[in-house]
Design goal:
This protein is mainly alpha-helical. The chain has helices at 21-43, 51-76, 79-84, 99-117, 121-145, 173-194, 201-217, 237-255, and strands at 10-14, 17-20. It has a two-stranded antiparallel sheet with strand order 1-2. α6 (173-194) packs antiparallel against α7 and α7 (201-217) packs antiparallel against α8 (237-255). The longest helix has 26 residues, at 51-76. It is globular and about 55 Å long. It starts with 9 loop residues before the first strand and ends in a 15-residue tail after the last helix.
């Protein structure tokens, strides 16, 4: 068993205001993601995105991540509670964000932005697919620091006793996710991007890769307390939400060969 490294969830105080690692993780993910996205625009062939496009697009993405992530958690993970306490939906400081909801928010933001600017969707989604694992990595590290979203009990030598759980050694599932969904998936996508793959290949690889990694990590991750009976005794909500991601990823990676454009009145990019 490895001792859990107790790290204060508050990184520092600015006067009376606490600055938490979780918030810093979001900032790091967005800032580094923006930098990586612009790098891809400069290195990938056929990119039609200007720096102004990217800056504007990331404002939409930030909104999609936050709104989609919160609404996804409400709808997918605790709908019965929030339908009785609707005002608490706005209390994001109490926790509760869904990655799958954030993905849906990003998809909607990408489609709308592409339509507005007269861009092809894959021009945005393929580059976004490469940089999303950066945010995933920092987010899961922050989950580990907060001792939240911990794993199931284990007798493996690297099990940890989380202070927010009980006295049982558990999988550090947050680190599994940081390593696979974050670091490994980023390396795979970054190497692919350097070879200038066909349109939609990076999007498909991300969807399939994340879905597969998350599906199997769910066997080590502890489900939410209110999602441990009924159908959830054999499959978790996270696994259910990963299945359409894998199917869509396989479609874009192995079946879809087109370069679907957004038809707008604007034929040129200004």
């Amino acid at each position: 068993m490895i001792p859990f490294p107790h790290i204060d969830p508050v990184a520092l105080y600015i006067g009376p205001l606490p600055l938490r690692w979780y918030g810093l993780a979001y900032v790091a993910g967005f800032v580094l993601g923006l930098y990586a996205f612009k790098h891809l625009c400069n290195t990938m062939k056929g990119s039609k995105l200007t720096s102004k496009h990217v800056d504007d697009y990331f404002v939409w993405i930030i909104a999609g991540v936050i709104l989609g992530g919160r609404l996804g958690y409400v709808l997918f993970y605790n709908f019965s509670y929030y339908i009785e306490h609707p005002m608490q939906i706005l209390q994001t400081w109490n926790g509760g964000m869904s990655f799958h909801g954030g993905v849906l928010g990003c998809i909607l933001a990408t489609v709308l932005f592409a339509w507005k600017k007269g861009l092809e969707i894959h021009q945005l989604s393929d580059k976004l697919a490469v940089v999303v694992p950066i945010g995933l990595f920092f987010g899961r590290i922050a989950n580990f620091i907060n001792a939240e979203l911990y794993g199931r009990p284990t007798d493996l030598p690297w099990g940890m006793v989380f202070p927010t759980a009980d006295d049982l050694p558990r999988h550090p599932s947050q680190l599994y996710e940081a390593g696979l969904e974050g670091l490994v998936l980023f390396i795979i996508l970054f190497v692919m991007a350097r070879r200038n793959p066909r349109p939609w290949a990076l999007t498909g690889t991300f969807l399939m890769g994340y879905g597969i990694f998350r599906f199997f990590i769910e066997y080590a991750r502890m489900p939410d307390t209110h999602l441990q009976d009924g159908i959830f005794t054999t499959i978790t909500m996270g696994q259910i939400l990963c299945l359409p991601m894998v199917i869509l990823g396989v479609y874009y990676l192995f079946i879809h060969r087109g370069s679907a454009s957004i038809t707008t009145k604007k034929q040129t990019i200004k």
